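Hey, quick one: can you model this chain's 3D structure?
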Amino acid sequence: MNLEDFKITSGINSHQNASIERNEKTIDYSSSKPLSYADILSITIGLNVISEFFDVNAVVTVSGTNISAVALGKSLEEAIVQAMDSNPLDFVNANVVVSAEIDSDAAKMLKGVNIIIAPKFTKNAVEYLDSHDICYVSIETPLKDYKKYLSNETIVTPLGTLVQTPNLSELDKETFKVVSKNKPTVELIEDAVFAWKVAKHAKSQAVVIAKDLKTSAVAQGLRSDASEYALNAACERAKDAVLASDIPLDVHDINAAIQCRIALVIVPSASSKVVETVDKYGLALITTGITNKLF
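Sure thing. Here's the predicted structure for all 295 residues.
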């Protein structure tokens, strides 16, 4: 069914009235079942992230409006396995957004999730999903064009209506700098770019730990101790991994990363004390010159 075929009448809570309407920035999509207000918000978060990886095999899992896991793979099936391994508890009943066509094998791997969102589904995949009563959403607008449909962000408050342009930040080679004495490997830089793209879409303060192009932990919406929370969640998987933060870190955060054997930190900027600390302990450090705060 298309957007016009289902109605949203309640919001996040059943006592809140709600609706949905098509506008000039609405992408083309169809769903096997009606979607709720919460579903639309959750799927949008997933699409925002997957649009960063439209040209590779990528999987994003979202629980509520929080990013649970992101993973890339040589094949879509490998990316699904990586995402499962990244956060197995939240994978169950998550909304899963993928960048490639879902075939019957991939559909079977995603049997336990809530909603599957993909550019295409094979006939066999559709038959399997329908027979198991699993909701799926087909995104008909090409993912490579998704960012063109992002609108100004509007928040209506009693103090006035706030409007800002969408966050379309991209890494810039002019401001992307290795500022530590220890120079990272190509593999670490690839993980750093990957983690930075994920952190861009997580609620501030966002800290993402990643290794081998999959997240080990995603801390989001924390105003303090975000780094320690992510490091504790990653546990042993923090060793030789990358830590990305959407805001600058202090020496306390860097010391925590060193103790957990993080190999590389990527941040918008770094103080002289932070640079001095990473050089003392041989940690690699990249600054991007870009903050990606999200409230």
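One thing worth noting: The mean pLDDT is 95.
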